[in-house]
Amino acid sequence: MKETMKYYCERMYPYVVSFAITCLFISKKIDIIHNKNMNSALDGVNTFAALIIGFLGAMLPVVLGMKNESKIVKYVFEKDVRKLFLKYIKSTIKVGLILVCVTIGLYFRNSFSDKTIFKVVYLWFFLLGVFVLCTYRCLSNMLNLIFSRDSDLENALIMGNSPIKDKKENDLEEKYSLKEMDTKS
Fold it and tell me: Could you give the C-alpha distances from 105 to 21, 38, 42, 129, 181, in angstroms and in order?
């Protein structure tokens, strides 16, 4: 149960936190559309999103190249039954691409009504928050993977405690290891 809650919290926190921040902006009726620095903010967000997407694209071959060299990377890829590593990178790239499209659309904000633009700006706030938090989650996991020591893996294997395993997998291993011991006796 604890592992399942942790799984859903890790998967959903970028969206929940971003939604809460967006609701705060809506309730305070913050208006940045008419700010003279709006185009600079749009430029900055586009640059940031492009850099992160490019960085993730450049890091993938490095991590995949480590797949056969490092014990921990190989172990994680074998035990990642939920494909979380792939899901996190995909979600970050998808949200980043959508963010770039919405940001480009905001350059043409004078062509739309204020009511429509305010909705798009709140969507932009939400996407920006999701992208930043998804990027953090993705890069944090990637850095943990890259900088993990092989000895950490060996200790996890000896103790049978893998951060990748879920409770059902541990229970099954324990159950069958006990049966093996009974048959050998």
Answer: 22, 13, 10, 18, 65
Question: Which ranges of the chain have pLDDT less than 70?
Answer: 67-68, 70-73, 75-76, 146, 148-185
Which tokens belong to 184? 């050998």
Tokens of residue 83, six digits? 């494909």
What is the DSSP secondary structure assignment for residue 70, as one 8-state letter?
Answer: -
Give the model's pLDDT for residue 123. 94
Mean pLDDT of the chain: 80
| 10 close to 137: Cβ distance less than 8 angstroms | yes
